[in-house]
Amino acid sequence: MSNLNNSIRTDWEMDEIREIYHKPILELMVEAANVHRQHQTGSEVQVCTLLSVKTGGCPEDCAYCPQAARYQTGVKAHGLLKDEEVLEAATRAKNAGSTRFCMGAAWREVRDNRDFDRVLGMVTQVNDMGLEVCCTLGMVNEYQAERLKQAGLYAYNHNLDTSGDHYSNIITTRKYEDRLNTIDHVRKAGISVCSGGIIGLGETTKDRIEMLHVLATMPEHPESVPVNALVPVAGTPLEHQPRVSVWDMIRMIATARITMPKTMVRLSAGRSTMSVAEQALCFLAGANSIFSGDKLLTTPNPDFNEDQAMFALLGLEPRKAFKNALEPAN
Length: 330
Ligand code: SAM
Ligand code: DTB
Ligand code: SF4
Description:
- By secondary structure, the chain is of the alpha/beta class.
- The protein has helices at about 15-20, 25-40, 85-95, 115-130, 140-150, 165-170, 175-190, 205-215, 245-260, 275-285, 305-315, and strands spanning about 45-55, 100-105, 130-135, 155, 190-195, 195-200, 225-230, 265, 290, 315-320.
- It contains 11 helices and 10 strands.
- S-adenosylmethionine (SAM) binds next to loops.
- It catalyses: (4R,5S)-dethiobiotin + (sulfur carrier)-SH + 2 reduced [2Fe-2S]-[ferredoxin] + 2 S-adenosyl-L-methionine = (sulfur carrier)-H + biotin + 2 5'-deoxyadenosine + 2 L-methionine + 2 oxidized [2Fe-2S]-[ferredoxin].
């Protein structure tokens, strides 16, 4: 069943999502494009910038991640950046037209220490610049989520990455349930939820559909769902995974769009190996957010000029900051 009457459903059955995912690709894209245009402004794409504020040396064993200390990936670890460095990067991002600035830390979880206090300070300063501030810092408890909110945090990214079943093949140092709990804490604190996953981790189609099912049946859909294609990094256990097919990215994006019509669906990692034509199909299928800037956290992303040219060619415009805000900034 599709979204008639503009209704937002959180009671999707696995079978319904499976049926959508497996539709003939052109039919799937048309349906997603229609839902997209019913609920979103078709020409608008949110532009976000990432900054790794604390890189590498992470104790977790996420099989895809170049920042896990246990894999030899050549990523240069560094401690928490200085405020000035972060503000400089945020200014550059704002001047380049980004409206969301996302700070990532290679932490398993937030600890109540001086580094967290410093991150809270950075959040306040970036928020004061008029940017939507997002963080991805690993697990947080309710109290930490509340402190982030008080500091001016707009969104928190915490990905499910894959299905509950496949999770333990990819990460053993924490549980799927831990991820769900953090998302709950973020939601309760009134912070916008950003949660999605990665394809290309050796998962089955069923795993992909299950992950979408978990997201689409949350009591409230995440406000953003990033769809990442694995960036295979030498030294990680997944370095030899085959490149994700663009058709699979389109199926994921379109199914997310149809099941979660109001959500920002982000075409995230993986763009640097996609042509403009391939990215255009993703936008048509309902993607309406990207990361801009020549680096994601540690891996390459298309550069600013390429994206400018793509926006001009496809007639896309950057979305304004704080549109559909849960509540006004400050
Ligand atoms: N340490 C925190 C955590 O794991 O929640 C935050 C940073 S972590 C790098 C953020 C997300 O980046 C991961 O959840 C994963 O979805 C994504 N990611 C990491 N490495 C990736 C890769 N090689 N390809 C695609 N996505 C990746
Ligand atoms: C998300 O879903 N993708 C971004 C962001 N959220 C934090 C991270 C992608 C990381 C890709 C690998 C890297 O650059 O280290
Ligand atoms: Fe650490 Fe996050 Fe990378 Fe996992 S994804 S190893 S938690 S930085």
